[in-house]
């Protein structure tokens, strides 16, 4: 099985955006590192609009196979690079990339107009509005709820689609729709009234966490005999727990502008939930893009355990107002993500090497 090399440049753009975002995160936490002008304030945009702004439309474009769709991840890749050089132009390109992603989701909705695609469409719409407002000069602490809704609703729609094999009852599906709508409403409300919007968002995140803990496949796959399937289940299950924790923090504190509580609530979602979902979905996403399966290794649990233990350390530092604990927790968060990248690449190359050897033996 040959690696689909034509998609590798897009993945390189996504990974580079992630690396720059991690670098910016360390600078923001107070680690004394060399920096670029404006790098620290670009941490959030690089993660959401750069890294995931390339990866998410790329995954859709590969699945749907319409050539025009590949313009979207390319625009996002060019956008995050330009953001570091000419911020307004970079923001404009990233906004155009989000609009392109919305067009891709429009194609999906037209083909399959069900709750899961509508949920993903609503998530991307929140991303578009957030980007437009960001470009217009609104502060990130106000529009971050729209970016959060983008990622949470995108992942939620994907999980709902996969959970259809469990046949959730019509009542459970209606409840999911109500929660998703409330999450979108909370994100939009935060633009007008930060405190109310943040609390509605928090309540919705907490409710969505409970919905998934009851209805998602992860609650079954953590007991699956296949080691890779079981590992994916643990990633997702842990992510759902962090989704609830982050939701509870936003519900309790309401609108936050900065500081340790803001860091705790935000990273419970973006690191605890989103990165857990990425760890869990990588064995599905990367083979779909590259055409080469990932070979599971028990060492995968090291990156997962490090991610969550370091996030606990970070939140303890935030809640106890201990900056050193926060800084070390944040650093170890990033070590876990780098370990994940390294293990994923190693697994793909190992699988490719084994398949090449098997082909040579057969010849």
State the order of secondary-structure elements, H for helix, E for strand.
Answer: HHHHHHHHHHHHH
Described by strand count, sense and barrel closure, the largest sheet is: none
Number of helices: 13
Global outline: globular
Beta-strand percent range: under 5%
The low-pLDDT segments are none
Mean pLDDT: 90
Report, as a whole number of angstroms, the end-to-end distance: 15 Å
Residues in helix, %: over 70%
Total beta strands = 0
SSE-based structural type: mainly alpha
Oligomer: single chain
Query: Radius of gyration from the CA trace?
Result: 20 Å
Keywords:
13 helices; mainly alpha; about 375 residues
Topology (SSEs and partners):
Elements: H1 8-29, H2 43-64, H3 71-83, H4 87-111, H5 115-135, H6 140-162, H7 170-192, H8 194-215, H9 218-221, H10 227-253, H11 260-290, H12 300-319, H13 323-362
């Amino acid at each position: 099985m040959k690696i689909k090399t034509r998609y590798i440049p897009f993945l390189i753009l996504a990974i580079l955006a992630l690396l720059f975002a991690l670098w910016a995160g360390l600078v923001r936490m107070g680690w004394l590192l060399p920096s670029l002008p404006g790098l620290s304030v670009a941490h959030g945009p690089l993660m959401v609009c750069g890294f995931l702004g390339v990866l998410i439309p790329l995954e859709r474009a590969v699945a749907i196979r319409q050539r025009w769709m590949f313009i979207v991840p390319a625009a996002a890749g060019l956008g995050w690079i330009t953001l570091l050089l000419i911020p307004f132009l970079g923001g404009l390109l990233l906004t155009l990339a989000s609009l392109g992603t919305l067009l891709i989701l429009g194609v999906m909705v037209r083909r399959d107009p069900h709750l899961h695609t509508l949920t993903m469409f609503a998530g991307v719409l929140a991303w578009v509005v957030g980007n437009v407002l960001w470009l217009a000069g609104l502060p990130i602490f106000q529009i971050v709820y729209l970016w959060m809704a983008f990622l949470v609703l995108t992942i939620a729609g994907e999980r709902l689609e996969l959970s259809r094999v469990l046949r959730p009852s019509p009542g459970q599906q209606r409840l999911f729709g109500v929660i998703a709508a409330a999450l979108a409403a909370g994100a939009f409300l935060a633009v007008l009234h930060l405190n109310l919007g943040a609390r509605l968002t928090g309540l919705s995140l907490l409710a969505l966490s409970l919905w998934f803990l009851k209805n998602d496949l992860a609650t079954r796959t953590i007991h699956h005999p296949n080691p890779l399937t079981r590992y994916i289940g643990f990633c997702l299950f842990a992510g759902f727990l962090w989704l609830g924790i982050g939701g509870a923090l936003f519900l309790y504190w309401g609108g936050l502008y900065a500081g340790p509580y803001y860091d705790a609530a935000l990273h419970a979602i973006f690191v605890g939930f989103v990165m857990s979902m990425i760890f869990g979905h990588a064995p599905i996403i990367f083979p779909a893009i590259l055409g080469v399966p990932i070979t599971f290794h028990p060492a995968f649990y090291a990156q997962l355990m490090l991610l969550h233990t370091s996030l606990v350390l970070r939140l303890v530092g935030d809640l106890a107002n201990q900056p050193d604990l926060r800084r070390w927790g944040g650093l170890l968060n990033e070590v876990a993500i780098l370990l994940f990248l390294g293990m994923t690449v190693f697994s793909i190359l190992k699988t490719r090497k084994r398949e090449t050897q098997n082909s040579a033996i057969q010849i």
